[in-house]
């Protein structure tokens, strides 16, 4: 990276948080400077949040990962799992709410592992469920949304708590990666398809209108036509709401890069297109099932071709003619019809 033309400075995982201390000297060098340490020595955690727009903030509660999935470089790049202190997370949530932001999305590399390596709190590491319960008590927060969480770390107790929560919304994004147990084992995932099915069934049992998103990888080495169809058929039968489809790409320093059974890129692209089509079908079916329901929408801040968009608590995207007074406001609505662009129209209740 440092040898790339135009690059002056390369910072490692720890050093990037002190970028201002490295940019005082703007002298142009022939080769970029590198400041880094071994990732195993990167004993740090910086709790933080970012504001995506005036309606939503992304609150980082955890970093790093202890999993060794055979396709992934995150443990090499981000280090072991470590967490912000519970008190600091709560303080950040309070600060966000004081800015008038209505929704907080919890983020991290593997947030279900929250509490592991809790920085500055060696005596007692909290659990993800404890984090969720404490955040639910923070005044001034209207919505809390859980970002991607591993199926083996999404416990019944957490699902049940969210179903009764004051602020956590009925929306889960759960990585699957493959519907084939054979490939899940090759990926070194920490669950098989039965566990995933169980998680989806549990969510739908206590929150029938919950939105469930799925990550899936196509073209992993060894994915035959039969194994791909196993994934496709599994997802087709599963009560989910949408897919995030990732096409496998080789990454240096991963186990999978040396696996046999490389899938041609044209085949990967074809399978990706098939799953993206399935995702559109799933989203449409989920939206249709919500028509007639009375929900709450949080409007966003952008004027999109004369319309303002928003999301319900269960992640249905809606639209109505542009009105700047609606920005960052919550309204009770009844969903009425799906527009030609796939968004849902509604009546104010």
What does this structure look like?
- The chain is 27% helix and 24% strand.
- The protein has 349 residues and is α/β, with parallel strands linked by helices.
- Among the domains are: 1-37, no CATH class; 43-169, 2-Layer Sandwich (Transcription Regulator spoIIAA); 294-348, OB fold (Dihydrolipoamide Acetyltransferase, E2P), CATH 2.40.50.
- Strands 14-13-12-15-16 form a 5-stranded antiparallel sheet, covered by helices on one side.
- Helix 3 (128-135) runs parallel beside helix 4 (156-164), helix 4 runs parallel beside helix 6 (193-206) and helix 7 (225-237) runs parallel beside helix 8 (265-290).
- The mean pLDDT is 90.
The main pleated sheet reads as: 5 strands, antiparallel
Helix content: 25-40%
Helical segment tally?
Answer: 8
Could you give the distance between the termini?
Answer: 55 Å
What general outline do the C-alpha atoms trace? globular
- Widest β-sheet, arrangement of strands: 14-13-12-15-16
Number of strands: 16
Strand content: 15-25%
| Cα radius of gyration in angstroms | 22 Å
In CATH, the architecture of the domain at 43-169 is 2-Layer Sandwich
Order of helices and strands: EEEEEHEHEHEHEHHEHEHEEEEE
Structural class: alpha/beta
The CATH class designation of the domain at 43-169 is Alpha Beta
Oligomer: single chain
CATH topology of the domain at 43-169: Transcription Regulator spoIIAA
The pLDDT mean sits at 90
Low-confidence stretches: none
């Amino acid at each position: 990276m440092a040898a790339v033309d135009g690059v002056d400075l390369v910072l490692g995982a720890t050093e990037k948080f002190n970028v201002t201390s490295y940019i005082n000297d703007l002298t142009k060098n022939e080769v970029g400077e590198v400041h880094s340490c071994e990732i195993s020595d990167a004993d740090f955690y910086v709790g933080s949040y970012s504001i995506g727009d005036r309606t939503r903030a992304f609150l980082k509660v955890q970093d790093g990962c202890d999993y060794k999935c055979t396709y992934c470089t995150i443990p090499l790049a981000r280090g072991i799992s470590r967490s912000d202190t519970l008190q600091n997370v709560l303080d950040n949530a309070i600060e966000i709410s004081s800015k008038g932001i209505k929704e907080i999305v919890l983020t991290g590399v593997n947030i279900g592992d929250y509490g592991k390596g809790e920085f500055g709190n060696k005596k007692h590491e909290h659990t993800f469920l404890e984090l969720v319960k404490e955040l639910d008590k923070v005044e001034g927060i209207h919505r809390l949304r859980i970002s991607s969480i591993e199926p083996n770390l999404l416990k019944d107790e957490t699902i049940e708590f969210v179903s009764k929560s004051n602020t956590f919304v009925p929306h889960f994004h759960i990585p699957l990666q493959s519907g084939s147990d054979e490939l899940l084992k090759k990926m070194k995932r920490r669950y098989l398809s039965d566990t995933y099915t169980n998680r989806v069934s549990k969510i739908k049992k206590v929150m029938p209108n919950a939105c469930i998103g799925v990550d899936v990888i196509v073209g992993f080495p060894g994915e035959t036509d039969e194994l791909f169809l196993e994934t496709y058929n599994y997802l087709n039968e599963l009560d989910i709401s949408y897919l995030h489809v990732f096409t496998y790409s080789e990454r240096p320093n991963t186990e999978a890069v040396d696996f046999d059974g490389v899938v041609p890129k044209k085949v990967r692209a074809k399978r990706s297109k098939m799953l993206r089509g399935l995702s559109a079908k799933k989203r449409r079916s989920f939206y249709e099932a919500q028509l007639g329901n009375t929900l709450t929408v949080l409007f966003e801040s952008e004027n999109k071709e004369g319309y303002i968009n928003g999301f319900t608590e269960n992640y249905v995207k809606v639209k109505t003619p542009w009105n700047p007074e609606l920005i960052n406001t919550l309204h009770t609505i009844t969903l009425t019809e799906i527009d030609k662009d796939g968004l849902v129209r509604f009546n104010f209740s």
